[in-house]
Design a protein that fits this description.
Blueprint lengths: L10 E5 L7 H10 L4 E5 L4 H16 L3 E4 L12 H8 L2 E4 L4 H7 L3 H14 L8 H15 L1
Parallel strand pairs: 1-2, 3-4
Length: about 150
């Protein structure tokens, strides 16, 4: 088994194709041992950047909090906020019903517009959200900042 799989942790494997390709060996070895792995079999160096981004997700979860309006319904696999914390490191914070809306209503309209304008100006391209959606997201962002 390749060293990368010895610890039993999820892995992203970046592999530059060659004429004597052993691509299948990488992905199947991890899968056979029940290890989550993603193979990036490409000569496109941007894929390496994508693989690195994926590997940062779980460590960042340990620094995250998610606001939850009770009742927390969860899933069959993760029925309770304690399980989310245990599995992903994300802290689920219960907020009183309606409290988030109350705080969001106090955000200055001009500030929400300014935040939205800044984001839209920095965007390479806006595909889906409407301006109104971006302003709502700006308002939510300011709510969480305060």
């Amino acid at each position: 088994m390749p060293t990368v799989f010895e610890q039993g942790r999820a892995a992203a494997v970046y592999h530059r194709p060659s004429s004597a390709d052993m691509t299948g060996a990488w992905s199947s070895r991890g899968a056979q041992k029940g290890i989550a792995s993603q193979l990036f079999n490409t000569s496109d160096d941007k894929a390496l950047e994508q693989a690195a981004k994926l590997l940062r997700v779980i460590p960042c979860c340990g620094q995250s909090r998610v606001l939850v309006s009770p009742p927390f319904k969860g899933t069959r696999a993760v029925p309770h906020p304690r399980e989310v914390k245990k599995r992903l490191g994300v802290e689920m914070v219960a907020i009183a019903d309606g409290r988030y809306d109350e705080v969001m209503a106090t955000v200055d309209n001009a500030a929400a517009e300014a935040r939205a304008q800044k984001w839209m100006k920095q965007a390479k391209r806006i595909v889906e959200p409407t301006r109104e959606d971006v302003v709502k997201a700006g308002r939510a962002s300011l709510t969480l900042d305060g």
